[in-house]
Amino acid sequence: MYHTIIIVGNVGKDPEMRYTPSGQAVTSFSVATNRQYTSGNGEQVKETIWFRVSTWGKTAEVCNQYVKKGSKVLVEGRLTPDKTTGGPRIWTKQDGTAGSSFEITASTVRFLSSRGEGDAGPMAGGGGMEMAELPPEDDIPF
Fold first, then answer.
1. CA distances for 121 relative to 59, 117, 118, angstroms
2. What is the CATH number of the domain that holds 50?
């Protein structure tokens, strides 16, 4: 059995790199994906889903160097369930509502933003991909 997930979104915070006791690099960062649609009653709905991405080895080192808050990335990998729930990680937001994030162990990370574009906003002519709305830093789930 095998599964893979591919997401395209915007990085929520600068990555954090650390090393395992054996010296292997691990870099983590959050990615927000969004979609906008019109509901059955004509209301515009914006939906954002957060993913926590972990990269290992050389990929971790490259991601730590080039991934920045606001960067657009494509991530391919596998879902990693929360050890306690077997599903996504659940938490309570500052406003008291429930939130969730999904964990991905990445096998591939592709950088879709041009150099220096991470904090510059949406890419001109971005191929139809809209920039995910990044909440205030206090609301990012990790």
1. 25, 7, 7
2. 2.40.50.140
